[in-house]
Specification:
Residues 1-20 form the signal peptide. InterPro entries: Ankyrin_rpt, Ankyrin_rpt-contain_sf. ANK repeats lie at residues 51-83, 118-150. The protein is mainly α. The chain is built from ten helices and no strands. The chain has helices at residues 2-28, 32-40, 55-61, 65-72, 88-93, 99-106, 122-128, 132-140, 155-162, 165-176.
Amino acid sequence: MKKTIILSGLSLLFSLPLLAQNIFTAIEAKDVASVKFLLSKGIDANTKDEQGATPLMNAAKTGQERIVLLLLQRNVDVDAQDKDGNTALILASAQKGQEDMLNLIVHHYPKLDAKNNEGTTAIIAAAKAGNAATVAYLMKYGASTQAKDKQHKAAIDYAREQNNTELLAVLNNSEATGNTTGK
């Protein structure tokens, strides 16, 4: 019996680096219980996959609020960037219907105007996705509407390209009031 316990313990100890990749598999499978188990076994919540993405980024871009909450409770780096320079906030902002997810992330004080390698900020990502609700939410917390990407375009430029009247109204309201930081 002692041998079995010792061998099991050694097996777990030597497999920790392998389990780090399994957290990504668990997130992909939307397996909250496995993510919770792996975190309880000491998996580094800031580990990165081959694209440089963290578990938080993968959970955020796929809309998995429960997993995002578990990871945020582990004091993960909310401003970590993948190889493309994306943060969890930028990835979540590019998805529609993520207001609850954004709320979780924003309350951990990310850099709202962090830029990826293309110069895209969270508010530009939301505008590209045509997501007026996310743009308004990010503005409420102080994201700049004046930030420009490497194509020299701000969020309002993408709204004009899409002829998105709802998004234009949100962004024009911020310009009309002189409130370009959203606050």
